[in-house]
Amino acid sequence: MRSRRAADYQDIPRPLAAMADEYPAGHATVLHSHRRSQLFYGSSGVARVATKDGTWVAPPLRAIWVPGGIEHQVVCRGPVSFRTLYIEPDASPQLPKTCRVMEVSELLRSLIIESVELPLDYDVAGRDGCLMQLILHEIESA
Q1: Is the Cβ–Cβ distance between 47 and 56 less than 8 Å?
Q2: 3-state secondary structure of 7
Q3: Helix-helix angle 127-141:106-115, to 10 degrees
Q4: How confident is the model over 89-119, as pLDDT tens digits?
Q5: Beta bridge partners of 48
């Protein structure tokens, strides 16, 4: 079983690392930050991310982008089934530089769901690496 601790995904030697987690209703994290950027996608439930600069809410079919190094808190109104992508800040120069809510297309949703099933040390030059690269392209165009 994969770790459900964000810290375990920060130094994986791949541009993207995907984690699945389940948060109960009322779950709230303390204010924290990560070295990597994050894409929070709740396949069910509604999540809120707050920073010193604002608050972003994502119902299903939306995701919240938080660039690396930004302090944030995650709050769940009801139970949320999270799929989180941790992305190296230099994985692409076109990735957003500020927090935002973005639409999750059917393709991106499928790619995110598939990404949590891949090995953490996926073959960057193989099918899995192509899938993760396609995720980056989909985030850039969202």
Answers
A1: no
A2: helix
A3: 140
A4: 999 999 999 999 999 999 999 999 999 999 9
A5: 57, 75
The contacts of residue 26 (CB under 8 Å, 6+ apart) are: 76, 77
Per residue in 12-25, pLDDT tens?
Answer: 999 999 999 999 99
Question: Which pLDDT value is given to residue 1?
Answer: 65
Measure the CA–CA gap between 94 and 13, rounded to whole angstroms: 21
DSSP string covering 48-74, please? EEEETTEEEEE-TTEEEEE-TT--BEE
Please state the length of the chain: 142
- State how far the alpha carbon of 82 is from the alpha carbons of 85, 90, 94, 125, in Å: 10, 24, 24, 27
For residue 64, give both structure tokens.
């919240």
Q: Give tens-digit pLDDT for 53-87.
A: 999 999 989 999 999 999 999 999 899 999 999 99
Q: Token pair for residue 43?
A: 């396949």
